[in-house]
Amino acid sequence: MIEKSRTKILPMENQTIIEAGQSESRYWLELWHYRELFQVLAWRDLSIRYKQTIIGGIWALIRPLLTMLIFTIIFGRVAKLPSDGSAPYALMVFAGMLPWTFFATGLADASNSLINNANLISKVYFPRLIVPTAMIIVSFVDFLISFFILVGMLIWFDFLPGWQIIFLPLFVALAFFASLGPSLWITALNVRYRDFRYIIPFIVQFGLYVSPVGFSSSVVPEHWRLLYSLNPIVGVIDGFRWCILNGQSHLDPTNLTISVAVTIFFLWFGFFQFRKMEKSFADLI
Question: How far apart are CA 249 and CA 92, in angstroms?
Fold first, then answer.
């Protein structure tokens, strides 16, 4: 007796319907669907960073603090560069060090994130965009820890921010996107060309000296301002100082507009290149 085969029809809510031209919209839905994986990866990377360390999260305090002291001595005491208004030079430097550290750490860690998660990417499917974004969230946690030093310095110098402080979250978001855009592009290139891992530290180190971290943007000559503003972190640092130093740090609308435009461009370009190469990550990695 021949038994007829039976076909089980799944309920509509358990079926995935693939439609032409819907790949981009479905990708954003997948990112939302895998939001718990995003939280798990961010927490894992955060715990790994401070695992088996003697002083744990205090490293997030020591690194910007030591850099601030060095820059204050070199640029403030030796080079005699001016501060912004009546703000203490050390406070001006640390107000620029906060967004720079967030940007640089996020860029460096996110750019190597796919290589560091090679085993996961080669075995399981999920939107790869989750991996570098989770690393930037870890850098944001370091930023929040370092922010307590800034609060302590404001109290120590008896220097209170003005109404401009309400715009600080906007510049934090700008720093996040300024880091995310180049990270997506570089991490995609890093999967295909492994020598990019050696280029990234050089880019970060070079960027530290061409960004207004240890000095004020006011010392940059006028004829260099346009080229100087193409650095997306310039607008972020100037915005941070404007918010924290009670408006005494000059915020040039033209420089800010250029920095925002460059950030938007790199965010679009990074996402475009990342999506273009994403399908080959599992094979190349």
Answer: 9
Sequential DSSP letters for 150-210: HHHHHHHTT----GGGGGHHHHHHHHHHHHHHHHHHHHHHHHH-TTHHHHHHHHHHHHHHH
pLDDT tens digits, 189-208: 888 887 777 888 888 888 88
pLDDT tens digits, residue range 103-133? 998 888 888 888 888 888 878 778 888 888 8
Cα–Cα distance measured from residue 204 to residue 108, given in angstroms and rounded to the nearest whole number: 7
Q: How many residues does the chain have?
A: 285
Q: What pTM, to 2 d.p., does this model score?
A: 0.83
In order of 38, 84, 263, the CA distances from 236 in angstroms are 26, 16, 10
Measured over the CA atoms of residue 133, residue 187, residue 46 and residue 40, the dihedral's sign is positive
